[in-house]
Amino acid sequence: MVGTKYYRKGHITVFLSLILTLILSLVCTTIESARLQGVIMQLQNITDMGIFSTFSEYNRDLLELYDLFFLDMGYGTNDGTSERVNMRLKEFTEYNINVNKDLGLLSMFRRADMLRANINEVSTNQYVLATDKNAKAYYSQAVSYMEDKLEISLVQKLLSQYDSSITEKQDIFENYEKSSSLMEADIENKKVEYEVEYEAALEEAKGDLSKVEIEKPREVSNPVDTIKELKKLSILDLVIEDLSNVSNKNIRNQVELPSKRQLKKGDATFQVKTESLFNQVLFNEYLIEKFPNYLSDSSNDNQEGLDYQAEYILCGKKSDKVNLEMVAEKLLLIREGINFSYLLTHRQHEAEVLATAILWYAPALAPVLALLILLAWAFAESVIEVRMLFSGKKVPLLKSSQNWILDLNNLDKLADMLDSGETDEGGLDYEGYLKLITYFSNVKNKTMRSLDLIELTIQSKTNKNFKIDNCTQAFTTTIDYKAEGLFLRLPFKTIERGSKSYRYSITRDFSYY
After folding, report:
1. What is the pLDDT of residue 446?
2. Which of 148-152, 406-410, 419-423, 490-494 has the lowest mean pLDDT?
3. Are residues 21 and 150 both part of a single domain?
4. Pfam families annotated for this entry (predicted)?
């Protein structure tokens, strides 16, 4: 009997095995590709959440006191660096990648995470500091804040007050003031010359007055001399009734302030507000609103700061009293220019009549003395007006016969008439004149000095280590992620040949402004 032969044919099994391998490869590749797309989208979301979380820690004092959005890169220290921000960003981002981080037993479910990603590196590409480009980041935020707050019509009304003719009148007055000493010398020389001539004539007549052909010199009251004596006093003695109420606070270490020290610099470009007339008005309004002045209700109880902050912005001295004195002199100069211009065109004849009476022996010099009388008259009127401003009254910007205070015959009685001025409801108050001075001040100086005050205030209130050049407005950062393969390794997407991980870099920009 012939035995039965059995053939073991495996071609179907082999075929199905090969087909199944290809199918599984295709399925795993599809699933892994889909997973990686989800990973990329999730990492982008995680990056955004990390950025927003990091920049939500903006400095609260800057916002509450000055309506500014900046992130303090020092985080309570005086060493503000982009690396500190990167570390903070990495911390926030890691919690979003691994939601079970630091949750004890729940961390064991990490392997069930389909994301399987970690942060490889966080780096900063560029950032903008508050002090960059002469503090243009700060300037731009301040202007934007006032844009949102003030109506355009109000700004245009404010702009109309800043008449360039005010500075022109001031220049004219200063030119006459500079030549006043020469004019006084000419008059004094002529007086001495006349006295010598009279003495010679008297000697020639051997003491017989009836034979002296020229008139005996006689003293005539000259209000210019009275004003010269008053000018020797401190300006604050003239314009403030009680100097005991004037602050004596000082800045202890002015060389460490932003306007004096070497500042850190960012390396990013950013959009800034131009120094147009419109923006300057807005910035001036910001300075007057945020920084108290001599007549403000608020005062700084901490000895590290200044009470008269608006005055510091204008003058930059370390003492409240010195700044106040310099502002008083600026106010006096503005008023003198305006008043002298009015006198020169409307009241010159009165001065010429008085000058002729005083210089009866030298009528040719009467016009010269008339100018000196006008200068003294303008000074006296201005002292009264500045005193009014410091007492809270209003003074009209331009003068007329209706609002003129001091008559010429009362010029030598100025000391008794310092409080004779009455407020003019149509005029400007002390704060209004501060705006006027601020508008014509150097933009860089007032910007940097205001940063001095911001830094001093925050240091005295909450954070002694605060530095304004540690504060950033805008940031460009790149986060480098490493994600593990799960279903299948895709060689064309791995970090390098043979690696089991994928690498993704995500760059984001953030700016408060």
Report:
1. 95
2. 490-494
3. no
4. DUF5702 (PF18960)
Closest C-alpha among 246, 434, 230 to residue 325: 246
Instruction: Give the range of the structural domain holding residue 276, as residue numbers without chain letter.
Output: 135-461
Tell me which amino acid residue 217 is.
P
In a domain? residue 269: yes
pLDDT per residue over 265-277, tens digit each? Answer: 988 887 788 888 8
pLDDT at 321 over 70: yes
Residue with tokens 């355009």: 152
Long-range contacts of 178-184 (CB under 8 A, 24+ apart): 180/371, 180/372, 180/375, 183/368, 183/369, 183/371, 183/372, 184/224, 184/372
Claim to verify: residue 172 and residue 89 sit in the same structural domain: no
Which residue type does 257 have? L
Does one domain contain both 409 and 321?
yes
Residue 223 lies inside a defined structural domain of this protein: yes
Q: Is residue 329 part of a domain?
A: yes
CA separation for the pair 362, 348 (Å, rounded) = 19
Cβ atoms within 10 Å of 58's Cβ, excluding its own? 18
Report how many domains make up the chain.
Answer: 2
Q: Are residues 201 and 272 in the same domain?
A: yes
Amino acid 47 reads: T
Q: What's the mean pLDDT when you consider all of the chain?
A: 84
> How many angstroms separate the first and last alpha carbons of the chain?
101
In a shared domain, residues 420 and 316: yes
43 and 91 together in one domain: yes
Q: Is residue 496, in this structure, part of any structural domain at all?
A: no
- Decide: 290 and 272 in contact? Cβ < 8 Å: no
Same-domain check for residues 152 and 296: yes
Token pair for 77: 């220290």
Work out the burial of residue 298: count CB atoms within 10 Å of its CB; fewer than 13 is exposed, 13-18 middle, 19 or more buried: exposed
Distance (Å, rounded) from C-alpha 405 to C-alpha 324? Answer: 25
Write down the pTM of the prediction. 0.84
